[in-house]
Specification:
Blueprint (H helix, E strand, L loop, with lengths): L1 H51 L4 H8 L3 H8 L7 H22 L10
Length: 114
């Protein structure tokens, strides 16, 4: 009877550990899903900014020093290394383009005089 009680206790503890692991995994998957959704939204925003300016993926990628495939992945919301750094570089590029357009007396969205 003692051996059966011991085995039952071991099985019970293992089941509790598995439930905890599953709970942790579920939380991580939820966070990953939220992060991916957030990055998809951010990527769409930057793709839209680029398209509004009539710029190609290749031109923008070269301007900020990344491959076109990395920029393409970023704009599609796929995980990439240094995503926040790329985001900052794109912000600086677009801000610089807007300032240059104002200095030149043009509207950045359609390149018409303002």
């Amino acid at each position: 009877m003692g051996t059966l009680h011991y085995i039952s206790g071991v099985v019970h503890r293992k089941m509790e550990q598995q439930v905890k692991r599953n709970t942790i995994l579920d939380a991580r998957l939820d966070k990953l899903g939220a992060d991916l959704s957030k990055w998809e939204s951010i990527g769409r925003k930057y793709a839209s900014k680029r398209q509004q300016r009539g710029l190609s993926v290749d031109f923008v990628a070269k301007s900020v020093g990344v491959s076109w495939s990395k920029l393409d992945k970023f704009e599609k919301g796929k995980p990439i290394q240094a995503a926040k750094l790329l985001q900052a570089a794109l912000d600086l590029l677009y801000e610089n383009m807007e300032l240059k357009a104002v200095i030149d007396g043009r509207s950045i969205s359609n390149d018409k005089p303002i």
